[in-house]
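User: Quick sanity check before I run a bigger batch. Here is a single chain. Can you write out its predicted 3D structure?
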Amino acid sequence: MLTVASDIEVLARFGRALADPIRCRILLALHAAPAYPADLAETLGVSRTRLSNHLACLRDCGLVVALPDGRRSRYEIADERLGRALDDLRTAVVAVETDRTCPDADVERCC
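Assistant: Done. Predicted structure follows.
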């Protein structure tokens, strides 16, 4: 059953998904074009198992969907507006002090 998430929940899910560099790379790749997991794993240079775990996280966050295609599933961004949001975030100017790191930068989390 699909429900509509609150604004805060949507932002929190998006933030958690973007907290991992591999998930960011997956989202950017899927924004460019839908893909099959095996192709994504090869393109990104990660194991299929690791990719599968990240895709599950992104599905649970509601950011990607798996569409059946014969015996395989093709993944794509769940909503085209997410792609535009990725573009906006990617090109945003962020004020970063070079001697500072994000406190949770090494924490791997999922939705």
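The chain has one domain: 8-91.

User: Great, the batch can go ahead then.
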